[in-house]
Amino acid sequence: MTTSTETVAKTADAAARALADVPPAVRAKALVAISDALTANADELVALAMEETGLAEARLRGEVKRTAVQLRLFADTVVDGAYLDVRIDRADPEFALGPRPDVRSGNEPIGPVLNFAAGNFPFAFSVAGGDTASALAAGNPVVVKAHPGHPRLSRRTAALGAAALEAAGLPAGTLQLVETQDEGTALLKHPLVKAASFTGSLRAGRLLADIAAARPAPIPFYGELGSVNPVFATPAAIAERGPEFAAGLAASVGGSAGQLCTKPGLVFLPADHGLDEALAAAAAGAEQRMLDPRIAANYAHGREAVLSAAGVRLVAPGSVRTDEDGQGWVTPTIAAVPLADFRPHPDALLAECFGPLTILVESPEGTDYAELLDTLFEGELTVAVHRADGDDVTALVRAAARRAGRVLFDGWPTGVAVTPAMQHGGPWPATTSGGTSVGTAAITRFVRAVAYQNAPTEALPPALRDDNPWNIPQAVAPAGESTTWGDRAH
């Protein structure tokens, strides 16, 4: 990328000003145009992604489809308009606290957004992925910092996306790409950039979040950084469906070589689970290539640290092999440790190990899973609960809701559904600023509320006008209603 970051920032700022006047229907059609471009060029894009990331064709084709569907979901979100949260309080001379002016508020685009793309999802969390889609849907231009793990794919996706947006009527510069870390850092500091998003490691995410917070005018930084995604299984659940549990766990841990932010990294289950043989058999399979040599080396180091911790034994040994090109090839590793050995020094086993490894924490009868969650965990993307009919898991579920953004039952956290209600985010360190990067609520990260008081009609944004030309849902508080406030409490 040879264009200076100053030019990129100014181009994005100019696009932001033009986008403010683009009707929702036009923005929605532009998102659909990107979706169509991805689908039409899927063969070329998947081939590039396979070569650069080593991920399997079926996984990547599914990810292209997911990304295309996600863009269409946000297109409908834009047309619906509820995310604008339009509120109109009519002027009221008899207001309970004295005469009330006409006040109208709604969400408006925040401005140019910088998106640091992920390496493990070259489509769904990359150039045209969820952060980009939600920021565009909100009416903001996006500058994507490409991930170094798939540069050619990033360039091609950005070219397709930018062309589709411009052909649909959006201003030039609505989608731009930069490639170097220096460019990304410079833009994160640039006063014309108004928000940033990131998916990646805790270390890198924290560094970037600190830069965003240390600016003379700090900006929101929405980082998804890391998660162990603990799983809790009751004795009755294991007794009822132990083999199915073993198969599901192995598949969830081994999928995409374990390089998923929702991989279950710790599994709390009864000490007498009796699943060693079933887990070892389920984990056996062909080697998978990891994304790049650096990730493979980090995984090998983390795996060794886990296996050398006190009390740890191997259930499925797994493997790590480096080929002549320096690429790492792996099979799943499943380790186990008694709760009595885990409790005294959990830090060695609580850190996320990015790759196909999970740890069974074998817990004696009567273990209080809710207490473990509250004392051992800070923030997670997910907590999974496996139980049988008759199990009282209320306390565990309440603890899970305090610690995670998504609580799921009798299933596995990998495979995040692209659906309006999805919450993909959690307390620190799962995410830096809350919010979600999947689901229609993701759009609210990239808007800010503005209120207009006693404004003439011609000065109001279309969504706040009485004639409502964009047909946006409006919550109207009529004059006189303050005299009945509190009546519903009776």
From TrEMBL:
InterPro entries: Ald_DH/histidinol_DH, Ald_DH_C, Ald_DH_N, Aldehyde_DH_dom, Aldehyde_DH_Superfamily. Pfam families: Aldedh (PF00171). Residues 6-426 form the Aldehyde dehydrogenase domain. Keywords: Oxidoreductase. It comes from the Bacteria. The keyword Oxidoreductase applies. Residues 460-490 are annotated as: Disordered. Residues 481-490 have a biased composition (Polar residues). This is Aldehyde dehydrogenase family protein. It comes from Glycomyces mayteni. The lineage of its organism: Bacteria, Bacillati, Actinomycetota, Actinomycetes, Glycomycetales.
